[in-house]
Amino acid sequence: MSVDLVIAIVITLIGASTPILIAALGELVVEKSGVLNLGVEGMMLCGAVVGFAAAYTTGNPWLGVGAGALAGMLASMIFAFLTLTLSSNQVATGLALTIFGAGFSALFGQPYTGKPLELFRSVFPPDLSMHPILKVIFGYSPLVYFSLIMVVAVWFFLQRTRAGLILRAVGESDISAHSIGYPVIGVRYMAVAFGGAMAGIAGACFPLLLTPQWVERLTSGRGWIALALVVFAAWKPGRLLIGAYLFGLIATMELYAKAAGGVFRVLPSELWASLPYLATIVVLVLFSLRARGSTGAPACLGKPFVPAN
Which of 72, 109, 277, 292 could form a disulfide with 43 if both were Cys (CB 3.0 to 4.6 A apart)? Predict the structure, then answer.
């Protein structure tokens, strides 16, 4: 395997991992607050189509990212209102949000189907971003660096700040947090809004970073992988980074299996394509097998908040 091929694989791997990592980081914060939002895929689709439309109309990819974040956040507020204010079932509402996102993106994206969009390029000078070796460090979209910064930011927020401590307290024991005066519903609203914005940015990554056009269901189920990844990482941001890159590696192998021969032909391309989803199933099975012990999941995850009288 040549050095050029290895570099190409690394660059593709990191690009493919970025949307999953961003979405999973947002969902990790949501779940740390005790809320289970299964609508990540729907929010990603909303962010993808609105982000594409904004970038295509204005020619500014930064506006595309901002619009995608706003679309994901607004979609998450539908979920938050139904589950936190009206106390509807979180699982059913999350699934409904995914269906809503799929329908909304298909309808809203019809005028943009097949239209080209310029990819979000590196902000570094060509001497660095196009260098045969240095491009491994400097040749990425700003969204890649954003995802890495957010891994550190989320870890620092959860482990080293008072606000992060409050959020974790709400997720571990909402009644106790309420009894000492913390606004449980308000904290969870903010967490859900952050998770929606991150999912929207993750969705915008697909047309701006990976596939420079709009097609229906562009995210291809990556929101479900992000959900499983949070479980795989045991709700820890550092493990989330490793897990996202492992899933990205599997997705990259599928692409090279279709385009190249040699080592990539050991398995058929169809099997490579299914491996990320098979890995998702394996992760969930392993989690269920160890569910009798300590899993790292917040104690109030998925449970509605009912304050004591």
Answer: 72
Taking the C-alpha atoms of residue 138 and residue 126, their distance in angstroms, rounded to an integer, is 9
Could you tell me if residue 295 is inside a domain? no
In a domain, 307, yes or no: no
| Residue 33, burial from CB neighbour count under 10 angstroms (0-12, 13-18, 19+) | buried
pLDDT score for 22: 97
**213 φ/ψ angles, rounded to the nearest 5 degrees:** -165, 170
| Integer Cα distance of 156 and 139 in angstroms | 27
Q: Return left, alpha or beta for 141; rule: phi > 0 is left, psi -120 to 50 is alpha, else beta.
A: beta
* 305 DSSP assignment: P
Which residue range(s) make up the domain with 93?
3-289
d(Cα 297, Cα 287) in Å, to the nearest integer?
A: 10
Tell me the average pLDDT across 11-36: 94
Question: 17 Cβ partners below 8 Å, 6+ apart?
Answer: 244, 245, 247, 248, 249, 251
Residue 153 lies in a domain: yes
The pLDDT score that the predictor gives to residue 268 is: 67
Rg, C-alpha atoms of the chain:
20
**What sign does the CA torsion over 172, 175, 180, 181 have?**
positive
